[in-house]
Amino acid sequence: METKVKFDWFCKATWSKSAYNTLWCLIGCSIGDFGTIYYFQITPHSLSVMLVMLIAIVNGIITSIFLETIILLRQKFKLKDAFKTACGMSLISMVSMELAMNLTDYLIVGSAKLVWWVIPIMLLVGFLTPWPYNYWRLKKFNIACH
Fold first, then answer.
1. What are the domain boundaries of the chain?
2. In angstroms, rounded to a whole number, what is the distance separating the alpha carbons of residues 123 and 22?
3. CB neighbours (10 Å) of residue 87?
4. What is the rounded distance in angstroms from the CA atom of residue 17 to the CA atom of residue 1?
5. What percent of the chain has pLDDT over 90?
6. How far apart are the C-alpha atoms of 144 and 18, rounded to whole Å?
7. d(CA 83, CA 23)
């Protein structure tokens, strides 16, 4: 008979480590996401709001992977291994972060537009959304990206 181990949601060390990991992901995702939204905000275009947000999400994931690769290279990973590890990071975490940030922008501002006061809200929602998942992943599988 197999015994079930109760999952511990109250480990301060794991919450701290998962917050650190989530913050690095947020930095990478925000660079590509905000950069894309800002570009389309200052450039005349005929793209729909949803298409701009989709491009922002993709660019956010790309910059997150790029930043992670650089961090891993600084930790003496070989380029191929660093890139492979960065791509193997939790795509669920990155996509949920990106969707949360863009949905927040859309619901508050009504479009894909950066307004100075909405950015902290987007960052907070973007951080909080994947953080419990990152905790669970780290606690259950001991898988972290940093």
1. 13-141
2. 11
3. 12
4. 34
5. 69
6. 8
7. 19
